[in-house]
């Protein structure tokens, strides 16, 4: 009787150190203080660019939802004009603005995975 077996490359079996690092990363991502610090850091980074156009954000969960400041940030970062944003206050105006920003990002070769206008507009 012969017994068959399969040999897997080492990448299928992480080392103890890799498992510890992965666990540390997972805990860091779940740590509310880490999340707060990330939001503060990202907000400060955005404001360092938005300041050039006399604009700022206070809350990343709310301030990009209408797409207006997101478009301003992208224009400042890229030093290129984006399509003119819709100025209406209705949800479809906000979605259109966020879509303009996302389409610009994609036009620069950035692949967006699981990111859509609806998620940003409602911050999900």
From TrEMBL:
Keyword Repeat belongs to the record: yes
Gene3D superfamilies from the xrefs?
Answer: Calponin-like domain (1.10.418.10)
SUPFAM superfamilies noted in UniProt: Calponin-homology domain, CH-domain
User: Which Pfam families does this one have?
Assistant: CH
InterPro entries in alphabetical order: Actinin_actin-bd_CS (IPR001589), CH_dom (IPR001715), CH_dom_sf (IPR036872)
PROSITE patterns found in the cross-reference section: ACTININ_1, CH
Q: Which UniProt keywords apply?
A: Actin-binding, Repeat
Coiled-coil ranges per UniProt: none
Q: Which GO terms describe its molecular function?
A: actin binding
Calponin-homology (CH) domain: which residues?
36-124
Tell me yes or no: is Ribosomal protein among this UniProt entry's keywords: no
Cross-referenced PANTHER family: SPECTRIN/FILAMIN RELATED CYTOSKELETAL PROTEIN
This chain's protein is named Alpha-actinin-2
Tell me the organism: Schistosoma haematobium
């Amino acid at each position: 009787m012969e017994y068959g077996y399969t040999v897997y490359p080492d990448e299928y079996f992480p080392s103890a150190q890799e498992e510890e690092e992965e666990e540390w990363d997972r805990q860091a991502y779940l740590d509310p203080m880490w999340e707060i610090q990330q939001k503060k850091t990202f907000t400060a980074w955005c404001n360092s660019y938005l300041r050039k156009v006399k604009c700022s954000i206070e809350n990343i969960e709310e301030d990009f939802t209408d797409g207006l400041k997101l478009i301003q940030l992208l224009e400042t970062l890229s030093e290129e004009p984006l399509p003119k944003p819709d100025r209406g206050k209705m949800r479809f105006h906000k979605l259109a603005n966020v879509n303009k920003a996302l389409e610009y990002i994609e036009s620069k070769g950035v692949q967006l995975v699981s990111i859509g206008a609806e998620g940003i507009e409602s911050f999900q």
